[in-house]
């Protein structure tokens, strides 16, 4: 039987502005289009897990406003249990302003709003969920003390802990490293976490190994079109990405994380789960927006079968 997934994190309404190229400091450019799309790293990961048929529950906070209501409604459509998401009176729902250029690259500014109210007390009120779920995943758009409390609690109960360190902090408390079963930074986040400057494959490998030495059990560095580098105590392996033309990379990492945890919950091996997640995010980058870009299970299975039939 598939295991259960708990995702604890942020929900944002994304205000997406498409433009030919990003403005320089002090410059004005004309945008092409502005859309509102459901997002937030936590909600995107839950949405991906739900759409891929994971049994997923989300913990997070929205404002007592129409944006919050829309975010919950959209997330529920993926099959995610949204009944524990809290409405915070007097706080606006989190928002993110996202610039996307013609190459599909993005820059994001998050205004946390109600996500800031996702506190330790709220996790304590929902403590039974820790016992009821098998995999617990966090990102870093809610207060750090909540994340660290959640990681300690999940680990104490013997749950599998996944931390997507996005946005990346400078470091983590010393006792946290060894409680993480899977740490999933992208290359920029990995460099920040490991105090390195230059983006080279050598530094990325060294950084991943440094994290393993700190006590993290498995590190998966998402490298965009170069794929995913997997490192643990005994292995190091690069899983190449499927070649596609990217339209918008927003939430590609979230889609990867949501798909990866779903794969693990279905008891795929970690290699299979990485390939499943790679395939999911390769579809996400070919579409615009955050949750709007995430593929469903049938589509993914079809693509997977096509690859198998083609001997890839
Ligand atoms: O990872 C993409 C997400 O980051 C966006 O949906 C935005 O809300 C920010 O949280």
From TrEMBL:
InterPro entries membership: Carboh/pur_kinase_PfkB_CS (IPR002173), PfkB_dom (IPR011611), Ribo/fructo_kinase (IPR002139), Ribokinase (IPR011877), Ribokinase-like (IPR029056)
Active-site residues, record numbering mapped to chain: 254
Keyword set, alphabetical order: ATP-binding, Carbohydrate metabolism, Cytoplasm, Kinase, Magnesium, Metal-binding, Nucleotide-binding, Potassium, Transferase
EC number from the UniProt entry: 2.7.1.15
Activation and inhibition: Activated by a monovalent cation that binds near, but not in, the active site. The most likely occupant of the site in vivo is potassium. Ion binding induces a conformational change that may alter substrate affinity.
Catalytic EC class: transferase
Entry note: cofactor: Requires a divalent cation, most likely magnesium in vivo, as an electrophilic catalyst to aid phosphoryl group transfer. It is the chelate of the metal and the nucleotide that is the actual substrate.
Pathway as given in its UniProt record: Carbohydrate metabolism; D-ribose degradation; D-ribose 5-phosphate from beta-D-ribopyranose: step 2/2
Domain of life the protein comes from: Bacteria
PANTHER family assigned to the protein according to its UniProt record, in alphabetical order: RIBOKINASE (PTHR10584:SF166), SUGAR KINASE (PTHR10584)
Family designation: Belongs to the carbohydrate kinase PfkB family. Ribokinase subfamily. Belongs to the carbohydrate kinase pfkB family.
Protein name, per record: Ribokinase
Organism of provenance: Blautia hominis
Taxonomy of the source species: Bacteria, Bacillati, Bacillota, Clostridia, Lachnospirales
